[in-house]
Amino acid sequence: MNLSKYLLLTIFIAFVSCKKTVETTNDKVENNIEFADGLEIHNYDGFTVMKVTKPWPNATKTFTYVCSNSKEIVPDSLAKYTFIQTPIQNLVATSTTHISSIVALNESTKLKGFPNLDYISSPVVRTLIKEGKVMELSDQENLNFEKTVDLQPQLIVGLSIDNETSKFNQFEKAGIPVVYNADWVETSPLGKAEWVKFFGVLFDKQKEANEYFQKIVLEYNEAKELVSKINETPTVLSGSIFQDIWYAPQGESWMADFIKDAKGNYIWKDTKGAGSLSLSLEAVLEKGIDADFWIGPGQFTSYQEILAGNKHYNQFKAFQNKKIYSYSLKKGETGGIIFYEDAPNRPDLVLKDLIFILHPEVLPNYQPTFILPIQ
Questions:
Q1: Residue 239, phi-psi category: left (phi > 0), alpha (psi -120 to 50), beta (remainder)
Q2: pLDDT for 66-121, tens place per residue?
Q3: Which of 68, 173, 232, 246 shows the greatest Cβ crowding within 10 Å of its Cβ?
Q4: Closest to 295 in 3D by CA, of 368, 201, 202, 188
C-alpha cells in the first residue's frame, strides 16, 4: 500500500456577473496537509475544495468535494463535483475512526446513525445511543438501505476497501451524498491522525481541527525526542497465527513506524509494503524466537488463551519472560476495542505507550492508554 503524493489541484475561478470567469487564485488560503498522502484541502473565498486522492489502496480514481454554506458562491467550473453544504447538520458514519474525529471536534450530536453500534466505545456517543439519538443501521456489516434513507442524513461518510462502490451508489441515487474517508489507507501515524481536518471541513471547524492536530504533532515529536539519544533498541515481534498463517505488519506499515519511533527493533522492519506479511510458524520462530517483546498478539487477552491457541507459542522468549502486550485488552462497554476507535486519532498516546513498554525508565510515572501487558 505505498502511497505517493499527488500534485496540488490548481483551480482558476471567476466572478463576472452571473458567469464566473475571473481568476481568483490570490484569494486562496491553503490548508497545508503535512503528513496525509491521500487528502488535499484547498480553501477559496467562500468555499473549500477537498480532494480524496487515495480512497483505497492502489486507487486510480479520486473524489472531489466542493464545500460551502452556499452553492451560489461555487464557480460554474466546479459544478460537476459533489457539492456539500457546510457546516454539516447531521450525518451517518461507517467507521469507528470517524467517531473519534467527530468526538474530538465536539460534534457528537450531529451523528445520527452507524452500522453496528456495539463497535462504538466513546462514552459521549454511547450516551446518545442510549437516548435513542444514534440509530442502528447495520445490515450484515453494510448500511441498511431502508433505515438509512428513512433517517434522511445530510450525508454519509463512507469507506471502500477497493473500487467496488456500488453499495453506496444506491444512497446517492436516493439523494444522499457519500463522502469517502480514507484515513485507514494512510501508513504513517501522523498521516492517519491528520484526517481530523477532513471533518474540520465538513463541520466548518478547520481552525479547531488544525489546532487539535498540531497539538498531537507536538506531543508526538516531544515523545519521539525523549528516546532519540537511546542506543539500546530491544527487538520486537508482532502478530499471531490465524488458520495456520502468521500475520504480521510489514516493514513500511503504521505499526512498524510506531515501533521505530519508540526506538524498538522490529524484526520485520526491512520488508517492503504497508500491509500484512503472511508467514509460517517456522519462519517466525527462526527470526523471532529471541525477540525481547511481543506486541500485538491478535485478539488474545491472556497467556492461557495464547497457549490454547497454539502450544508452540511458549517457545518464544517474550512468552517465557511475560513480555507480551496487547491492544485488545481495553474495551468499551459493549465490547468494542478502544484501540481501533481512538488510536488512529491519537498517535501521540500510542507512541508513549510503546516507549513506556520498551524504555520504561523514560516515562516512569506514565499510565498506558491503549497497549497493556497480557496477564
A1: left
A2: 999 999 999 999 999 999 999 999 999 999 999 999 999 999 999 999 999 999 99
A3: 246
A4: 368
Contact criterion met (CB below 8 Å) for 251 and 271? yes
C-alpha distances out from residue 157 to 77, 163, 184, Å: 25, 16, 13
Cell of 279: 508467514
Upstream peptide bond of 249 is cis (omega within 30 degrees of 0): no
Q: Write down the pTM of the prediction.
A: 0.89
Nearest C-alpha neighbor of 336 from the set 96, 97, 94, 119? 119
The residues, any chain, with a CB within 8 Å of residue 182's CB and separated by 6 or more, are 38, 39, 52, 54, 55, 56, 159, 195
Q: Write out the three cell numbers for 2.
A: 505505498
Interhelix angle 123-130/96-104, rounded to 10 degrees, is 100
User: Within 13 Å, how many C-alpha atoms sit on residue 298's CB side?
Assistant: 18
Residue 252 CA, distance from chain mean position:
16
